[in-house]
Amino acid sequence: MWVCSRCQAENNDAYTQCTQCSAPRSHRRFSQGSPTVTPSLQAQPPERRMRDPAPPETPPIPSRHAAPASPAASADPRAEGKAAPRRAPGAVVRAAGIALAVLLPLLVVLLAALNQATLRPMVAGWFAGPAPEQVFGPTGIPLPPAPSFLRSAAFGWFAYALTALAAALLSMAPGLALWAQGRLLRAMRTR
User: Where do the H-state alpha helices sit in the chain?
Assistant: First the structure.
């Protein structure tokens, strides 16, 4: 090994020029004093003939998920260098999870909108409680029930919308769980 006097880079003994700056190798010991003048090298700028140290050739590790080579693919010389694109592990599971997380809430909202005439009185009854008993006046005529906010139409719509929203959010759970399993599968396979 020799050290370049210009850039202080270490070079192999076989090289006559520095691999970093292409400076000629000094023939003096430990690069003391002025470098040796060589007319053939000093007349023109040094030629950049740097060699990259070649890494040792290692064969690629075969993947257990690689597609088998087909006879048609081996006939084409351009296809030999290119491998078939690989799908990420768990991609199908994640795609199915996203589809379920979107489609199930849409279905719940559609059903809530189509069946609101049937379901809204039942949902409002859950919050308002049972109907009050009929109260009769001193003359035997039934008295109207006391006005209650829980029995109003506005509260009935509010309770129905809130319940439909909760059902739509709850219906996202299977899709999100499937999506999370796909992510977990990808994380486990990449380690």
Answer: 39-42, 71-75, 77-80, 91-114, 116-128, 153-170, 173-190
pTM over 0.70: no
**Amino acid letter for position 101:** A
Express as a percent the part of the chain with pLDDT over 90: 22
Tens digit of each residue's pLDDT (9 = 90 or more) over 130-151: 666 677 777 878 766 655 656 6
Q: How far apart are CA 7 and CA 22, in angstroms?
A: 10
Look at residues 170, 169, 171, 185 and name the one whose alpha carbon lies nearest to residue 93: 185
| Nearest-angstrom CA–CA distance, 135 and 85 | 77
Residues facing 142 on adjacent strands: 136
Q: What are phi and psi of 3, to 5 degrees?
A: -105, 130
